[in-house]
Amino acid sequence: MAVSFNTMDLNLLKVFDAVMDERSVLRAGQKLALSQSAVSHSLARLREMLEDDLFVRTATGMQPTSRALAMAAQVRNALGALEAAIELPTFTPATSTKLFTLAANDFVTLVLGPPLLKLLGHEAPSVDLVIKPVTRIDLAEQLDLGRIDVAIGVFSSPPSRFRTALLFEYDDVLIVGANNKLERIDKATLEQLSLVVVSFGGEQEGAVEGCISERGLARRSEMYDRAALEKAFDRSDPPPRMAISLPHFLALPALIEESGLAAIVPRPLAAAFEHTYAIAIHELPYKTKSLEVRLLWHERLDEDPSHKWLHSMLRRATECLPHRRFIFDNADADRELSP
After folding, report:
1. Where in the chain are the domains?
2. 27 exposed, middle or buried (CB, 10 Å; 0-12, 13-18, 19+)?
3. Least C-beta-crowded within 10 Å: which of 72, 149, 183, 246?
4. Mean pLDDT of the chain
């Protein structure tokens, strides 16, 4: 049966979008203020029109078919465009109860979270946040479907449907337990250390140059500059032993505080750890790449006042950090570059 858009009931698409989002007929009905039977009836009409099951009931909820997955992002975008065309968007932070969903790793959350929460407490006390990990999810799909409002991380050449904005830059430093009495670190000293590094699953997922690519969106998986480390040690100088590779930063301080282990970490994270844990920060004896931590969002959100405000708050939160650019000259570690 041929489907004509001219005879399509747009309410059916709203039901489809709600079931896609909730993976439950009951919760979709609650979201749309419809009865469960009304949602089921609308799904049945849409299934008949499109000649596809669209959703299959399983023990874990309503799972979409390949046809449903293929049309989900376009339906979400179309409904959003219609809503924007009809309704005049407004946003009042002081009284808003909006829920924003971010995606970030634990490094970004630790560095950015405290100043962001302080700003929200003053200016938008009823706005809530959900922070999802950037790893182990299809980030591009989540942004396309509108389940994530903004992702924060290091991205490489994102597809044109996404927009980005710079938050801060950083390089790498070495951290050791404060009881590990090391002075200036040179290559010979570094060579004798056993290192802890963080990699978000890149080895298993086929990372290329420290990045994992999904649906054209490449995100950084190796959280240290492996290329710079390998370049610093030629064939006659064996590199330091990689004793432990972690999928997150959370356990790092506990692992190095009372041991002889050292870790290569982003400079702003080292500064945050230093406030709480007994660690010491050292400059590496080689220069590491300057990386940009950026906001990433879907282009359809460009003109949404609430999302413009959110991006502004995130940028302001980085300004509350000790220094916005965390890039130091390795030849003169005490001299900061101006922003």
Report:
1. 6-86, 95-339
2. middle
3. 183
4. 85
Contact assessment for residue 277 and residue 169, using Cβ atoms and an 8 Å cutoff: no
In the numeric block, which tokens belong to residue 56? 């299959």
Contacts of 164 (CB under 8 A, 6+ apart): 155, 158, 294, 295, 296
Helix (H) or strand (E) holding 12: helix 10-22
Tell me which CATH code domain 95-339 carries. Answer: 3.40.190.290
Residues in the chain: 339
- The first and second tokens of residue 177, run together, are 């337990």
pLDDT band at 120 (very low <50, low <70, confident <90, very high): very high
Residue 229 CA to residue 332 CA, distance in Å, equals 19
Q: Looking at the predicted structure, is the pLDDT value of residue 56 above 90? A: yes
Per DSSP, helices labelled H in 196-266 are: 202-205, 226-232, 252-257
Domain 6-86 class in CATH: mainly alpha
Q: With bands split at pLDDT 50, 70 and 90, how would you rate the model's confidence at 200? A: confident
List Cβ neighbours of 217 (8 Å cut-off, separation of 6 or more): 139, 140, 143, 155, 158, 159, 162
Q: Do residues 278 and 177 lie in contact, with contact meaning Cβ atoms separated by under 8 Å?
A: yes
**Distance in angstroms (rounded) separating the CA atoms of residues 107 and 265:** 9
> Region 261-267: what's the mean pLDDT?
94
**DSSP code of 220?**
E
